[in-house]
Amino acid sequence: MVQMAQEAGLEFNLDTLILTNTFDAHRLASFAKSQGLMHKMTDRLLRAYYTESKHIGDHATLIDLAEEVGLNRDEVTKMLSSSEMSDVVRADEQEAQDLGIRSIPYFIINKKYAISGAQPTQAFVNSLEQIIEQDGPFTKGEEQNGAVCDENGCEIPEK
Q: Which residue, 66, 78, 91, 135, is most buried by CB atoms nearer than 10 A?
């Protein structure tokens, strides 16, 4: 995994990373999504965890990281000291369980194709080319089967 990360231009320091419960980090990412900063927050959390070996289960660390990406420190502190966003994370966990997801990373495309595990870039390219060939292109902001995608990801309506 370290070698694959290096090939993708990433630095993973798995020998020094701090194993922790990431539930609150997931709540923070969900909170950031509500503020339009999900991608920045997720990127920052991943870099903090895998590259910088920061303790992303620690509220003080999470608050500092959130402030770095532009979230309001007081709002994040209040959110983390409550149960806010817990239902969102629990719903994501339930959906993953329902779909049989047992590992990360795991990508679901068009609600019918899955790519599991860390794969070489070419595996993603090949998979996406096959999906586009079968389903046609899916463009930013386009609505398809009730899903709407933008710079913050895709919102798939509840069934």
A: 66
